[in-house]
Amino acid sequence: MTLADNQTDTSRSLYIRYMDRTTDHYLQEGFNNPYQWARFEDVPFAQLEKPLSESRLGVITTAAQFQPGKGDQGPGAPYNNEAKFKRVYTLPSDEVPDLRISHIGYDRNNAQIEDQRVYLPLERLHDFEKEGRFKELGPRLYGAPTLRSQRVTSERNAPEILEMCREDKIDVALLVGV
Amino acid sequence: MSLIARHLEANGIPTVILGCARDIVEQVGVPRFVFSDFPLGHPCGKPFDEETQVGNLDLAFETLEKAFAPRTTVQTPYRWDHDEAWRDRYLQPTD
Fold first, then answer.
1. How close, in Å, is residue B74 to chain A by CA atoms?
2. Which of A106, A116, A155, B21 is the most exposed place for a label (fewest CB within 10 A)?
3. Residues of B with CB below 8 A from A52's CB?
4. pTM of structure
5. What's the complex ipTM?
6. Which of A46, A134, A154 minimises the CB distance to B61?
7. What does the alpha-carbon distance between residue A14 and residue A151 come to, in Å, rounded to a whole number?
8. HEC states along chain B?
9. pLDDT by residue (tens digit) across A112-133?
């Protein structure tokens, strides 16, 4: 049976279990040390202290700055370990930088990332800012490394980003994970 | 990304994560999560598509404002394709 154009196939519409898929994939490839994702019982929760329209927004991305000479980082590039970065970086938030995601295990069989806005929504955020949805963007965009070490992320990179957010008087944060 | 959201939140900065890997983010446990059920790489919408790109952010802001408890997940109303076969292609060899 084929589906007519206006019909939607909902037979497999449950969301993908990426942890199972990834673990199975690497076991099949002969890697017997599957990654263990973090798991916490308790989850912190902070209330907004003022309306969003009066709040300064910080934006955190896992995308990487384009690094000439470090291999193919373009849309559709194979996984590029060389393009990984290990330390938090910042860029001015009032300009749209050239950020890439070749260092991340995103869905290369399906993704269409020619439009950077699918993972870095800065132009859209500038529009929301003009409309007054939030008061303003913080002065800097924060780039967060995607490291295998949860300890380094929790004990070094997260505190560094917190410190930067405090310096920039960030009230609320949007984290865009690729 | 989830670990960073947790750290900011524990130190008084409310956060919202936009992402595509629901199982991972929910296992780690975060305050607010807007789930975009698109291929990994598309947390903010479809390419050159105003509806999903604006809609996802709008939902993120709404979630930031209205969530009243941690582990709040809100799924965007958008579908990647009429055909769900993309879900099977993830990590499959393409050659």
1. 13
2. A155
3. 61, 64-65
4. 0.94
5. 0.96
6. A134
7. 32
8. CHHHHHHHHHCCCCEEEEECCHHHHHHHCCCEEEECCCCCCCCCCCCCCHHHHHHHHHHHHHHHHHCCCCCEEEECCCCCCCCCCHHHHCCCCCC
9. 999 999 999 999 999 999 999 9
Q: Which residues of A touch B23 (CB under 8 A)?
A: 15-20
* A12 phi, psi to nearest 5 deg: -125, 35
Q: Are strands A89-92 and B15-19 parallel, antiparallel or unpaired?
A: unpaired
Per-window interface: B 9-48 vs A, CB < 8 A: 9-25, 27-31, 35, 37, 39-48
Determine whether the interchain pair A41/B40 forms a contact, defined as Cβ–Cβ distance below 8 Å. no
| A101 contacts on B by Cβ (under 8 Å) | 41
pLDDT digits (tens, 9 = 90+) for B16-63: 999 999 999 999 999 999 999 999 999 999 999 999 999 999 999 999
